Amino acid sequence: MSALERLLDSGEPFSEISVQQIIEEAGVSRATFYAHFRGRTEVLARLTDELRAALLGLARRWDPGAGEDGADRFARFFAEVITIHRAHQGVLDAVREAAAYDPEVGDFYTADLEGFDEAVLRTLLAEQEAGTTPADLDAVAASRIIVWGGAQAIAHHIGVDDGRGDAALARELGRIWWHGAYRRPAG
Predict the structure, then answer these.
(1) Which of 11, 42, 78, 177 is 20 to 30 Å from the Cα of 135, by its Cα?
(2) pTM of the entire structure?
């Protein structure tokens, strides 16, 4: 798995990385590789397991009623998300690339975002029930917009920004989520 990550971090597109390259980089035999993996897609999937768990863990820890400004807490949350994405940019780029043409990768990429979407939806619904988020908010639509749109915004940002704009992006995402959904005025 480390061999694949090194190849991806060197800028090699996932579609151009062969099993042969992975086993040469790892210094293992073909038989050893296939004793542990069905193919390179499974290596990619297992490589993202910890990353997936870390990102979903952040989402599940979110508590809108934690007693401080939610926009600031969201900004810190997004700063962590951006840091994780930057540290694993090669892997995330490979997942996005392969998801476009490999149904197996597409399934686990989509499942990750759907899991995050479900966590956000639960918090929005709980906030509506508590009366702190407006009842007229369409929680399903809002969770889809902020999760799926946020994922695209972060991916694009990392691709075009050298890191100097990370705090600004995190701050703006935090404000948009908080004031645009969680605490927007009822209307």
Answers:
(1) 78
(2) 0.81
Domain with CATH 1.10.357.10 in the chain: 48-182
The end-to-end CA distance of the chain, in Å, is 50
Both structure tokens of 58: 């952040």
48-182 under CATH 1.25.40.10, yes or no? no
pLDDT tens, 15-38? 999 999 999 999 999 999 999 999
Which residue is listed with tokens 């009842």? Answer: 135
At 113, list the tokens: 């975002």
Q: What is the per-residue DSSP string for the chain?
A: -HHHHHHHHTT--GGG--HHHHHHHHT--HHHHHHH-SSHHHHHHHHTHHHHHHHHHHHHH--TTSSS-HHHHHHHHHHHHHHHHHHTHHHHHHHHHHHTT-HHHHHHHHHHHHHHHHHHHHHHHHHHHHTSS-TTS-HHHHHHIIIIIHHHHHHHHHHH--STTHHHHHHHHHHHHIIIIITPPP-
Is residue 62 over pLDDT 70?
no
Q: What is the dihedral of CA 133, 135, 140, 141, to 10 degrees?
A: -90
